[in-house]
Amino acid sequence: MASSxxxxxxxxxxxxxAIFHMTFPALTVGLSILLAVVYTAYxxxxxxxxxxxxxxxxxxxAVGFGLGVVAGTVMTFEFGLNWGSYAHAVGPILGVTIGMxxxxxxxxEAGFIGIMLxxxxxxxxRTMAFAxxxxxxxxxxxxxxxxxxxxxxQDPAGYAEVAGQFRARDWWQVLFNPAFSYRFPHMLLAVLIxxxxxxxxxxxxxxxRQRSLAFARRTLSLALGVLAVLMPLQLYAGDETAxxxxxxxxxxxEAFEGNWxxxxxxxNLVVIPDPGRGRDNLRIEIPHLxxxxxxxxxxxxxxxxxxxxxxxxxxxxxxAFYGFRAMYFTALAMFAMAFAGLVLRLRGRLFTARRFHxxxxxxxxxxxxxITGGWITAETGRQPWVVYGLIRTSDxxxxxxxxxxxxxxxxxxxxxxxxxxxxxxxxxxTVKAGPEAVDAPSPARFLPVRPTLPEAAHG
Length: 459
Description:
Its EC number is 1.10.3.-. By secondary structure, this protein is mainly alpha-helical.
């Protein structure tokens, strides 16, 4: 068995890799759909504003997409590097699921992204629109397979244990396990919302600076329209997911509620846990609200405490509690801003409310913060299991020395820090440069040049 230091270093390495990777799909899934929508709108209306939007967001999408693919490949590599025991045990199930992502999603995206990025002026507009939709479809397929694999780790189903490995007994139950039906819509809404905040925040920056106003108004209008629809759905989906996880992983709910004893009906805003003594050294709460959120409208029911779970099966309350609060409070702030945007639109002040625009600029990364908090809650709240109820994290690590694990962690941290800095710098430079001016091109410009009969005769 690996030392506890090796386990912790390997956990940190995978957590940093996962957070780095998730940053890009959290934006590119929604951006790919935006690109397909605005190019289709351009195809139907010939309004050059939509073409301007397509070209601007295509630049940001392309770099994020490339980094996301590279980071995702590294995660697969780490399964063998740091988590060899885990990879051996679940390879017959998760290897197939991840392989399906490669075959369906990556191949689809790879087949069409070149046309979307470089086909303008070389292929017909309808082909451009089709390629854009195929890339968007590929990102959705990728999200589906990854959520299926991760959800199986949260709530494994349809398997049989044979010679130390978990093998599929019923692939339908494996792929569409009970957790998938809750976590997939929750995550899909999250990435769409995250992209909408990113797009809306940058559009608001142009409004604050009074630059590219037509581009900024149409972009902001689209982003807030999407958020007005999706935010209420996301709050409902998040609540359903929390209820499901509370029933299937009660220790996770106990940890992110921040109570040790089952004697509190309040909702904890701040806690300082003391895991060694099984108590909170500090707790700031709203009385009765915890019971009300738990659907006891009398406000008297007690919220379950973590002492109900045996000590060797308790997750880390620090990470689960504050990961959940980061996600939940950010989601509430996003909902409030989306509602304010709807009110401003109805009052005809959406494009003139300067304070609102400045707040939107500050909230540009809000979706990323919420997604990161959600994944920290989901993954640390599942501990000490890497596959819930089947494989402990301490049994899943490769037989590495602490020095080897520390060296690989330092290497990954260095590379990711450089890549994030380069990516942020690229986005800042692209935004400051602004969208290119676009004239409405003639439809004939996109037609392939065919030789005339005399030219063809002379070869």
